[in-house]
Amino acid sequence: MKGMIPFVLGTFMMAGPVSAMGEVRFFDHFHRDAIRSGSSYVEGYLGYTEYDHPDVSSIHVGARGGIPLVPRFELGLGGGFVDMDYDGGGGASGLTDLDIVGKYHLGARGSNRITVGGSLTLPVGDEEIGEGNADLGLFGAIRRPLDGNTVLMGSAGLNFEERGGTDRKSSLHLGGGLIHRVDGRLHLLGELGMDTEGDRMLFTAGVDYLTWSGGRLRGAVSLGIDDGSPDFMLRGGYLTGF
Predict the structure, then answer these.
(1) 8-12, 22-26, 41-45, 236-240: range with lowest mean pLDDT
(2) Which fold does the domain 4-241 belong to in CATH?
(3) Would the pLDDT of 227 be above 90?
(4) Residue 14 bridge partners (DSSP)
(5) First to last CA, the chain
(6) What integer best gives the mean pLDDT of the chain?
(7) How far apart are CA 227 and CA 233, in angstroms?
(8) In this predicted model, what pLDDT tens digit does every residue of 131-145 receive, in sequence order?
(9) pLDDT: is 147 or 188 the higher one?
C-alpha cells in the first residue's frame, strides 16, 4: 500500500494545457472523478466477480448515471442486482444498496479540473448479499493532462462504512488512473485504488470505444492486489447521454 501514495501524488505533476478528456469515464472511480458533464448520462453494465476468501463468485447487473442539476453541481446514482454462488453449495441473490453521489466542480485551475463531493448509500439492498448498509463519504478528485493524448486522475476520500447495526468504521481511499487516447474513438484506461479498511486494493485495465451512434462501448478486467479485494473481475457496459 505504501507505493500507492506516490502513485496518487504523481497525478499532480506539471503537464501541458490540453483537453481533460471529460467524455471518458473511469470504471472504479466512475463518480469520484473530476469530470463535468453538460448533459445527463447513464451506463448499463454486466459484471462477473470471483473471490477466494470466501470462495464465492457473483454476477452483477446494474445501472449508474448522473444528472447535472446546475452548471457546476452533478447528482449521481447507481444500483443493481447481484446473484452469488458459493463454492461449497448454495448461494444468495438480491438488490444492492442505492448509491447517491453529489459533486461540485470547482472549475479549471490552469489545465487542472478539480471536483469535491460527498456520497450516501441508502440501505435498500438485501443483507443476504452483504448489503443494507448506510455508508457516508467525502472525496476530492483532479484530472490533469499529461500530453495531448494522455490524462492523469487522482482521487482521495474518507468513507464511513456501516458494519453491523449502527457501528461505523472510517476508511481512507486513495486512487489514481490514466486515460490514453489511441484515436478519435478508442481510449485505453488504467486505474488503481486502495481502501485502508478491509485491506482492499484493486487494479483495473479497460477500454472505452465511441460508437457511430454516439454511445460508448466499455469493458474492463480487474485484479485484486490485497486480501480484501476480489481476485478477478470482468465487466462490460454501454454508456450513453440523453
Answers:
(1) 8-12
(2) Porin (2.40.160)
(3) no
(4) none
(5) 39
(6) 88
(7) 14
(8) 888 999 999 999 999
(9) 188
Query: What does the block give as the cell for 226?
Result: 490485497
202: cell is: 484493486
For residues 227 and 234, give the distance between their C-alpha atoms in angstroms, rounded to a whole number: 18
**Per-residue confidence band for 188, with pLDDT thresholds at 50, 70 and 90:** very high
Query: What does each C-alpha distance from 176 to 8, 159, 226 come to in angstroms?
Result: 5, 17, 16
Q: 208: which residues sit within 8 A by CB, 6+ positions away?
A: 24, 25, 179, 186, 187, 189, 216, 217, 218
Q: What is the pLDDT of residue 164?
A: 64
CA distance linking residue 105 with residue 25, whole number of Å: 15
Tell me what the mean pLDDT of segment 208-235 comes to: 94
- Cell numbers linked to 19: 483537453
97: how many CB neighbours lie within 10 A of its CB? 23
Q: How far is CA 7 from CA 20, 169, 230, in A?
A: 19, 25, 21
β-pairing verdict for 200-210 and 216-224:
antiparallel
For the record, the C-alpha cell of 24 comes out as: 471518458
CA dihedral (20, 238, 173, 179) in degrees, to 10, reads -30
d(CA 224, CA 111): 32
C-beta separation of 232 from 222 below 8 A: yes
DSSP state at residue 127: G
Residue 44 one-letter amino acid = G
